[in-house]
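Hi all, a correction to my earlier message: I attached the wrong file for O-antigen ligase family protein. Here's the right sequence:
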Amino acid sequence: MTLYVASYLMISRFWKAKEWVLDVFLVSGMIVCFVGITDYFRMDVLNLHKYIAHEEWDIFTSTIGNINMYTGYVALILGASAAWFAIAKSRIRVIWCYLCMVISFFAIILGRSDNAYLALAALFGFLPFLLFRSKTGMKRYLLMLATFGTVVLCIIQMNQAYKDTVIGLDSLFQTLAEFNGFLYVVAGLWAIYAAVYILIKKSRNKNDEVGPVVMYGWAGLLILSVLVLGFLLFDANVAGNAARYGSLGNYLVFDDSWGTGRGYIWRKSMELYKEFTPMHKLFGHGPDTFGILTVTKIGEEMPQRFENAHNEYLQYFMTIGLTGLIAYVVFLGSAIYCMCKNVKTKPYIIGCCFAVICYMTQAVVNISVVIVTPMMWLLLSVGMASGKKRCDE
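and the right structure:
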């Protein structure tokens, strides 16, 4: 963490930002995604599986490692490419970012980790607050939605055609695959995009700006979605009606088995926190000492060895305390706000911004590792370096 912060200070304060740096990140990211996609087809193009036990082949992929780490990395690529595509003006830039976005859509789905849902939700949920200010932004957003649906549809067809070769989907994406009407949903998305595109093109009003009504409407829709989710959680956990939700009950019912044991370690973490001294509650048990804490306190009862909370924020809450967690979240939030202020002057900053947003969202169920987290800090540093003059004003 000390090295992360030191790197951030040096880059954000002294480096002269260049757009091509983000292109280098996307090019290298495409290699990571390509290897991950081929691993889903069990091709093992880099011949790395010979170093892994056969029964664990399917949970290690690409050049990253565990599928949770892999999709965490792809979330950075997805956030950067999709957001940059959404506001890019150059035709070459639009095509390049669109291709990167499509490939990262394939990669993050075929990664088969549940943290992908959170990254996708953050992308599609928060991007409209920037895009729905213009007609072009609305068109790009609808194109993104239709493209994502098409990617899912292609994956469903590939799974059927190569069912004896591929690893196979599970969880929510498998639910989509079993939904017979999904083809019509995708067709509907393309129809809506085509209709909006034609209406905007034939409109006599050539002003690209859109009033705040659309953005307020989207904010209302998000609030309504949160309320509905809250009701579903209450109904499934408190009211005891989990059975009515079928396979979705695996996500709605929060118990010890939730999230492959995350429910258990999250519950035990809070119990351990209650036993902390006031000083430890404020400043934590110590950086990277979560494993020591669990082994010494609950080692005998743990169903498996937990050396990490599998929630980056809970991990910091336990190890650097309430003070450290608040400082970390406020720092990231202020950095995102600062980057958003500079999007109009340097559009590529939006790629850095949404890469960080996607990372922050998936971190709720993922861990901070030195394979992925330094890249998030690097993109954050680049974004802040690009807009440092206006942020300092």
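Sorry for the mix-up. Residues 2-392 form one domain.
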